[in-house]
Amino acid sequence: MSETTNTNEEKKKPPLNGRRALPPNNSNDEENEVPEMEAFGLIPRGFNPKDYLCVVDIHMFKEPHEINKQQHHTDKYYSPKLIVRRGQPFQIQIDFNRPYKPETDRFWLEYLIGRYPQQNKGTYIPILIGDVLKPGEWGAKITHKENNSIRLSIMSSATCIVGKFRLYIAVWTPFGILRTQRNSAIDTYILFNPWCQQDAVYLDDEKEREEYVLNDVGIVFHGNINDLKVRSWSYGQFEENILDACLFLMDKAELELSGRGNPIKICRVASAVINSRDDNGVIAGSWDNTYTYGVPPSAWTGSVDILLEYYSSKQPVRYGQCWVFAGVFNTFLRCLGIPARLITNYSSAHDNNANLQLDFFLDDEGKLDTKITKDSVWNYHCWNEAWMTRPDLPVGFGGWQVVDGTPQETSDGMYRCGPASVQAIKHGHVCFPFDAPFVYAEVNSDIVYSRREKNGTQVIEKIDTTHIGQLIVTKEVGGDGMMEITEEYKFQEGSAEERLALETAVMYGVKKQTTQDTRYQPQMDVDMDFQMQKAVLGSDFKVTITFRNRSHNYYTATAYLSGNIVFYTGVTKMEFKKHTFSAQLKPSSSSPFDVVIKSSEYMSDLLDQASFHFFVTARINETGKILATQKAMVLEIPALRIKTKGEMVADKEMSVIVEFTNPLKQTLENVTLRLEGPGVLRTMKKEFRQIPANSTLTWELKCIPKRPGLRKLIASLNCNALRHVYGELNIQIQKP
């Protein structure tokens, strides 16, 4: 063969590497061409395909009210195509040009996915017609024959690839195989099946399946440990084009099609592709309070807009913070059929060297030294749990797995986290993949306050073993309340089991620095407590420091209060309040000290989530010992009010009214309102130039609800001076 012809050949073929016979098959979107006539040899001149069995029509029973979508719990998907769950039979009907004769006619089905279908990879699936269906294995049998039509019951494998398959019907003739034409209307989506016992994501409780797979709205718990706040989030996993957008994420992550039946692999690659770091994924994070050329994280009310924008632009959507990553990840998991829930961990450690301790360094005045303190405590951090078996781990570590799409630290060179078994984290068995030590540290770290003396030695002033991971919560099943799941992650604080789990974690290589106990001798007979008044954004409030002297000695203390405006990640933006005072501590008595904080001191620099962080350090002058405490606080942010007018019936126009009163002493400028409700209305946006102080804005809009039942409307308001303003309303849409 001469050189020239060779290069032409190479141009036609996709590039191969030395290890593969075929290029990687990692796009659900690409297709191969399938011949309609596959000849066995020379075809005689008199051959007429019409003489043989011919397919005239195929009925997929794919309407929401028909048998397939009803039985497979996929009737809510806003898609005209057939959507079924794996490992469970579904029905189709084939109309031929004449009655089917089983003695002489031979036909079979072919399901194909991707561009290079291969039988051993599960991307080309020929199905012969048999007499019985084996549970959880591919097969088909005839259930009904009438005139020229037959009814088939088809069973898919409980481990098959999840994605969009193309269907062909092949008929055998003596001269070759005749196939139906490519017809995208009969494409079939196959999803995970939590209702099927052989599926890796099988969940045995119907109420939990309704919540963790079928509920398209949820709750995000935020705020901080002293002031829990709640907002709704629209997952919208059944909305138009969302299923295709979720399948596209796996193409974007270049996950081989043959790996797409495995929920462990899917979660691992999805946790990387949800954030834009290192792979141009879905959401770009921003934690610095500047959101130029993008939507502030607090403005989003749900996942649909984000996923659809990414699906069409293929560029990261700006901007997200942890609950946005977790909300979109939850949509992705529920959409594919993997049971999932959104988790909030209050006082979450971001330990940047995984040594199970957060190092807070104080300078010689007892102030936090921000230059050398690298670790931080997030007021809260949201991640997800996905439900699946873990055949790759020893028995007992299946069930809920932590997956986290927020880019915090790299894992195997990429920003991703999980799946990590919750059970393994609780018992300290952090040697099992993936990323268990990092999650263990998020819920179990100690805070160590140390001070550098003039001669350079480090003195440990205080060790706080209970501040981190104080409360871990998720939305309750079947309601909007909070369900505490702290004990799923850790044993009772201070119990023997907790110590044992910690020792196990240390044995498995979670670094724990030993603190020389000789250096650390705290002041035992004086306690310091710190309390804050609840306060609404824009008002003055007071904080109270109380010393309790339990000894018979008379002490004096020099105390320093530092008030900081912080990001919800615990990173300080600036100190806005410094207050030093001295205190006389009489024997066996309590002494309270009040400090007033004026709105004029904090309003100009306040960040998104209206978070403060107070550090109080006090030196007992007689002993030189230091008392230290810290507390986070979140101001109350006013809410939006949502009302409806007129009757609420599916397919009939109704009115929604959103109202907001500006509580600040200033005019709000360039205000954006958003409103959405899955099944009721697509996200609507409206801009207002100004809302003067104390005045009320009203926005009325019309919509036509699509789905009857209990639905939720969710609204948000955003402007530079005020963010994280939300409102919601449950409404009952009647059947027409």
From TrEMBL:
Gene3D superfamilies: Immunoglobulins, Transglutaminase-like. It comes from the Eukaryota. Its EC number is 2.3.2.13. Residues 314-407 form the Transglutaminase-like domain. Its cofactor is Ca(2+). It is found in: Cytoplasm; Secreted. Ca(2+) binds at residues 444, 446, 493, 498. PANTHER family: COAGULATION FACTOR XIII A CHAIN (PTHR11590:SF42), PROTEIN-GLUTAMINE GAMMA-GLUTAMYLTRANSFERASE (PTHR11590). This is Coagulation factor XIII A chain. It comes from Ardeotis kori. The gene is F13a1.
